[in-house]
Amino acid sequence: MFTPPAPGNWSAMNGGAATTYDLFDAVLLDRDGTLVEDVPYNGDPEKVRPLPGAREALDRLRAAGLRLGVVTNQSGLAKGLFTADQMRAVHARIEELLGPFDDWQICPHDDGDGCGCRKPAPGMVHAAAAALGTSAGRCVMVGDIGRDMTAALAAGATGVLVPTPVTRPEEIAAAPHVARDLPAAVDEILRRQAAVRPTAPRRAGTVLVVRSDSAGDVLVTGPAIRAVAAGARRVVLLCGPRGRAAAELLPGVDEIVEWPLPWIDGDPAPVDPDDIRALTGRLTAVGADEAVVFTSFHQSALPLALLLRLAGVGRISAISDDYPGSLLDVRHKVPVGVPEPERALSLAAAAGFGLPVGEEPTLRVEVPTTALPDGPYVVVHPGASVPARACPPERWVEIVRRLTATGHRVVVTGGPVETALTSRVAAAGGTDLGGRTGLAELAGVLAGASCVVVGNTGPAHLAAAVGVPVVSLFAPTVSFGQWAPYRVPLVRLGDAAVPCRDSRATRCPVPGHPCLTAGVDPAGVVAAVRLLTTGIRR
């Protein structure tokens, strides 16, 4: 549980820009098609042509204190189409035109060499991060094709795709973030960096934080709740029944109030005036000096804000596109598609709360001691809270069969209502833990895994919270950039361009559920696990 700091120690926690964290330390850039015109196998400095606006965009990153690296595949070396000296001359010309870079990472191998550095493998991203004195999770990778995004995500970095005429439509659909050109990508990187910094850091007494939704929603709000806890003497979390188990695992929470909210729950009971009066009384009893109401992009904070006013809460902060009248003191707005943890962190920053230096904005939970299976294992979690995001059982059966055939030990997990599913899937060669773990015990099982294969559902965020790589079988009914497991090594699988994209459908509206049937090849899952556990893609 959160231990309040001793009186007088607040300035060390929220004292301004020098004592708050940044999202990113470095920006890594693909060379051809991102920085300069793509001239195939170029060994001639005279053919170097910077892309429009590249120099000005890079100078803005330098001015913001971000280190810059170039991460580039140069198979022309392996093919003998140019020499290392010719390549160095090209790079010298690029720096003459675009300014100095802090690091260059070059893969000299060809596609069939099986190295761990050639994109889409993550080796060069990790190497660049190490050379720049940071971690991959604190880097942004900007590139123009899907290989750049795969390498970034597999390393745990943020990916921004800047398409060119050679970028395939399916690569654009699958990208976590897309910018029209390099200057626009830089605009977004700097905007995200600034959004989570409190412009006026504050200290507070008792703060009520709210995230009344499912376990995954509570987990992705964890970094923002820790930011509030860094500047508050006491934090009380209001959550719903579906989020209670996740709330109990979050650092920074002193007290939990569980209450279902009929304007939030997906299957709500009718509004009961007596229940609303009782909730208002319970909120009054918290004695909060202020409240920060976290919501998803399609939810409204205003009904609860009204009750909080009636409960006497003096300062209320929330994201609201709707006019709030006198219900909010801090009305915050966020662009569409921002990762949920950053969306919540930006609200905390608008309210005056930021994570202190050294506190990474990753998801985090307190993991209990759990009896783990012996030896290395891969977790397969076939269930999903929303049917449209569930891979068909027969596909999961084939995935487990392929994983075990390639030497992986598989542990199949699921909740009490998923035991028939986990039994069927585990029969293909896995160990069935379906129904045998609560959320806390599941966190322990996931923490011991080498990799987790899961759809876009709560346990994907739990895997991120314990720092385990994720193979994400992601149904595109919601935004991948917004809901992907945050800041962990990741491979996305599934057809991202199906007609249900961004529909928020809870049941698949397309016959045959193509995004997670034809779009998920079990052999591709095996390759993704290999990429995340060895860094090599064959």
TrEMBL record:
Subcellular location: Cytoplasm
InterPro entries for this protein: Glyco_trans_9 (IPR002201), HAD-like_sf (IPR036412), HAD-SF_hydro_IIA (IPR006357), HAD-SF_hydro_IIIA (IPR006549), HAD_sf (IPR023214), Heptose_bisP_phosphatase (IPR004446), Histidinol-phos (IPR006543)
Gene Ontology CC annotations of this record: cytoplasm
Main location (coarse class): cytoplasm
Domain of life, source organism: Bacteria
Sorted UniProt keywords: Carbohydrate metabolism, Cytoplasm, Hydrolase, Metal-binding
Xref: Gene3D superfamilies: Glycogen Phosphorylase B, HAD superfamily/HAD-like
Molecular-function GO terms, alphabetical: glycosyltransferase activity; metal ion binding; phosphatase activity
Biological process according to GO: carbohydrate metabolic process
Similarity field: Belongs to the GmhB family.
PANTHER family: D-GLYCERO-BETA-D-MANNO-HEPTOSE-1,7-BISPHOSPHATE 7-PHOSPHATASE
UniProt-recorded name of the protein: D,D-heptose 1,7-bisphosphate phosphatase
